Amino acid sequence: LVPLLAVGSSAPVDEVKRAASSSCPSYTIINTRGTGEQQGPSAGFRTINSRVTSALSGGKIYNTVYPAGFNQNSAAGTQDIINRITSMLRSNSKECFILEGYSQGAAATVNALPSLTGAKFEAVKGVFLIGNPEHKSGLTCNVDNNGGTTTRNVNGLSAFGEGGIPSNWVSKTLEVCIYGDGVCDTTHGQGINRQNLQYPNDSPTQNLGTQYITKQLGGSS
């Protein structure tokens, strides 16, 4: 649900430096891009991830492999997230993870959560979502881009049925929805609009994400 953007690396993994947080000396940020973004890092998280990996070494960034097509079928992304966590924990049972998703990528991430149980649940230290079409009203993890509550009690385009963030994940999730973003806030906006495209260049969103992820990884926010 973002326009086609020219992004740098097409490889799914970008290696970063090593070792810093005592609780998460090795961590992987799984970054799931939005509709129309080329395979690689999402524009929504580039600034955040650059800041986090500069402050806390030991990090790797994995760019979820899936089409991010306009048909909104994100199932391949969901499965890739699950597979990546499973395979990495086989190699290092102490690996920490942060999950990020922008728009369709947020939906792919949310849909992976019910399958991340046991050791996989414990390994994921935080989930950071922006412009989530599965945004559900009333969750305490719902904030606007200033950390406020103006979008706490609104629903996204796909907020129906039993989907959305499972209750046991709410405490380790921060979901940012800008007021009027028609993808996550259908009360005050309609469809893919200016607000939905605002996150990559929105300083409050980028600051919230940097602080939240650094804290969840055991660093100083």
Notes on the protein architecture:
The chain has 221 residues and is an alpha/beta fold. The chain has a single domain (13-216), classed as Rossmann fold. Helices cover 25% and strands 15% of the residues. The protein contains five helices and seven strands. A seven-stranded mixed β-sheet has the order 1-3-2-4-5-7-6, with helices on both faces. Helix 1 packs parallel to helix 5 and helix 2 (75-91) crosses helix 3 (104-112). It is globular and about 45 Å long. Residues 1-11 and 15-19 have low confidence and may be disordered. Keywords: Disulfide bond, Hydrolase. It holds the Pfam family Cutinase. This is Carbohydrate esterase family 5 protein. One of its GO terms (molecular function) is carboxylic ester hydrolase activity. It comes from Plenodomus tracheiphilus IPT5.
